UniProtKB/TrEMBL annotation:
The lineage of its organism: Eukaryota, Viridiplantae, Streptophyta, Embryophyta, Tracheophyta. Residues 208-249 form the RING-type domain. It comes from the Eukaryota. It catalyses: S-ubiquitinyl-[E2 ubiquitin-conjugating enzyme]-L-cysteine + [acceptor protein]-L-lysine = [E2 ubiquitin-conjugating enzyme]-L-cysteine + N(6)-ubiquitinyl-[acceptor protein]-L-lysine. It comes from Liquidambar formosana (Formosan gum). CDD domains: RING-H2_PA-TM-RING. GO terms for molecular function: ubiquitin protein ligase activity; zinc ion binding. This is RING-type E3 ubiquitin transferase.
């Protein structure tokens, strides 16, 4: 799949998943993105581009980071944006977002803008670095003016959000499974495991698929969010190594950045795919 087609497909999946939200949910999401993502995003970019000293320091910090470190920072930023999107789609809800240090946050924003500019106008970054701040400022101003008529509380906020998520996914490799750590098994988050409910077995003949033994009626067992039941002594070691249900592969939240990206993006893909299937069946 060509890079342009992959990005278009990613954006289509996100838009289709958003179309499954009710109007109140979409309004809530737009408000959340506007407050927690859009305003901070543009405020920090404005600060970077209006201050020669801050821009120079951030660019120096970005140059000092290794490629794996850049990828990790992009992944953490992507994870924070995906959690906004999947808040209404996941049970349990995604854990609290990991907060990037301000210096790292600025480096991620600058990296995203530099990559976007390189993709659109590669010749622009062939100029001396002393001119980059002015070039980036003009580029961002043109972009903001081009979407100013959409409406800052609806279309503009969501369009910019979708573009950033799609760009991060492409860089991290989550869409194509190209990330080095994507696809590997990760442990479930200890906080999520501790919060799992204990329920009493009410039926007869129910078997724990891990140990293959019957779950005795009246005994307390663990219930996962997908409603499958397991002996506590069986499921705890299992979840210490992997965050999937042994029966249906339902994914629980994890503390691994790459594992969470894969899990949450899978939720978005499932919602978008479900919507397309509904449309095709009519």
């Amino acid at each position: 799949m060509a890079e342009g087609d992959q990005q278009a497909s990613t954006e289509t999946i996100i838009i289709t998943a958003l179309s499954t939200l009710t109007p109140p949910q979409l309004s809530h999401l737009t408000h959340t993105i506007s407050s927690a993502f859009h305003r901070r995003h543009h405020h920090r970019l404005s600060s970077l581009l209006s201050s020669p000293t801050l821009f120079s320091q951030t660019l120096h910090h970005l140059h000092s980071l290794s490629l794996p470190h850049k990828s990790l920072l992009l992944s953490r930023y992507l994870l924070s944006t995906l959690r906004h999107l999947t808040l209404f789609f996941t049970t349990p809800p995604p854990p609290q977002t990991t907060v990037l240090k301000l210096q790292d946050y600025d480096a991620v924003l600058l990296l995203l803008v530099l990559c976007e500019l390189h993709q659109q106008y590669p010749e622009a970054l062939e100029t001396p670095q002393a001119e980059w701040r002015g070039i980036l400022g003009g580029y961002l101003l043109d972009n903001m003016l081009s979407i100013s008529g959409i409406g800052v509380h609806t279309g503009a906020v969501l369009i910019q959000y979708i573009e950033v998520v799609a760009r991060c996914l492409r860089f991290v490799g989550a869409v194509g499974g190209g990330g080095e750590k994507l696809g590997t098994e990760v442990a479930a988050s200890p906080a999520v495991v501790v919060a799992l409910p204990s329920v009493e077995v009410s039926g007869v003949g129910l078997e724990c698929v891990i140990c293959k033994e019957e779950m005795r009626r009246g005994r307390d067992v663990c219930e996962l969010p997908c409603e499958h039941l397991f002996h506590w002594m069986c499921i705890l070691p299992w979840l210490s190594k992997r965050n999937t249900c042994p029966c249906c592969r339902f994914r629980l939240p994890s503390d691994d950045v790459f594992g969470e990206i894969q899990r949450l993006w899978g939720v978005v893909v499932k919602m978008g795919s479900g919507r397309r299937s509904d449309g095709e069946s009519r």
